[in-house]
Amino acid sequence: MTAVAVARYLLSDAWRSQRVIIPVVLQIAVLAVLFGGDPGPLPTPWAASILALYPVSAWLALTLANTEDPVQRSVTVAAAGGPGPVAAGTLLVAVAGDLLLTLLSVAWPLVATHYTVPPGVLVGALLAHLAAGLTGTAVGFLCARPLVQRIGWSLLIALVVVIATAVQPWLPPVGSSVSAIEAGGHPGSLLVPVLVALVLAVVATAVSSTVARRG
After folding, report:
1. Any stretches that span the bilayer, and where are they (predicted)?
2. Which of 13, 19, 155, 175 could form a disulfide with 168 if both were Cys (CB 3.0 to 4.6 A apart)?
3. DSSP 74-135
4. What is the chain's Cα-based Rg?
5. Domain segments of the chain as ranges
6. pLDDT tens digits for range 105-146
């Protein structure tokens, strides 16, 4: 079974469980509050939606990784030919969710407010949100099974990591992305955060696969 086939299966299974709906609804609620009135000229208000997307994407990734119980996951791993395709398929679904939430977060104020932005700043906003989403995915994977077995501990560790890293403006990918948006959102200033976030997500996936293989 290829990673794409695993991704389709996991997406279907996650949708049936409906647990992935909660983080998506949470991001929608945050956007409705942030941009329901007059948030001020863009791109500065996007800083808040970037900070919101970080924990939401972590929650989404953690939910995707823990959708199946250990017995079900072992069956999926056996059918896929090992934990590698399962981890890669989970990453594909999580990244698809990050892209969806990124597009939603960037488009919302463009539709709900009268503010417009130059194309370059729009690209910068997309990159900044994607960096936060991918970083959240990495955190979610590192806090989910098979690394952390209990969901209570998973949520607590993820929350601590998100809070500790989101408030550091010098720290890529999330802190530096927020700082770049507040400074004008030039796309060039956001390439490094996106690349760092992508590496983190891939490394987290590899770590999860390795631990599952040894378990």
Report:
1. 20-37, 43-65, 86-108, 120-144, 151-171, 191-212
2. 175
3. HHHHHHHTSHHHHHHHHHHHHHHHHHHHHHHHHHHHHHHSS----HHHHHHHHHHHHHHHHH
4. 17
5. 3-214
6. 999 999 999 888 999 999 999 999 999 999 999 999 999 999
- Any idea which residue has 């001020």 for tokens? 40
Average pLDDT of the chain is: 94
For the stretch 194-209, pLDDT in tens is 999 999 999 999 999 9
Question: What are the distances in angstroms from CA 111 to CA 1, 106, 134, 154?
Answer: 41, 9, 25, 36
Residues in the chain: 215
Q: Determine the Cα–Cα distance for residues 108 and 35; give it in Å rounded to an integer.
A: 8
From residue 134, give the alpha-carbon distance in Å to each of 13, 20, 70, 82. 22, 16, 25, 24
Cα 181 to the center of its chain, rounded Å: 18
Residue 175 CB contacts under 8 Å (≥ 6 apart), including other chains: 165, 166, 167, 168, 169
Q: What percent of the chain has pLDDT over 70?
A: 99
What's the pLDDT score for residue 42? 95
Q: Which residues contact 51 (CB under 8 A, 6 or more apart)?
A: 132, 166, 174, 178
Q: Is the pTM of this model over 0.90?
A: yes
Inter-CA distances, 201 with 18, 138, 156, 195, Å: 24, 4, 20, 10
Q: Which pLDDT belongs to residue 169?
A: 87
Task: Give the mean pLDDT of 21-31.
Answer: 95
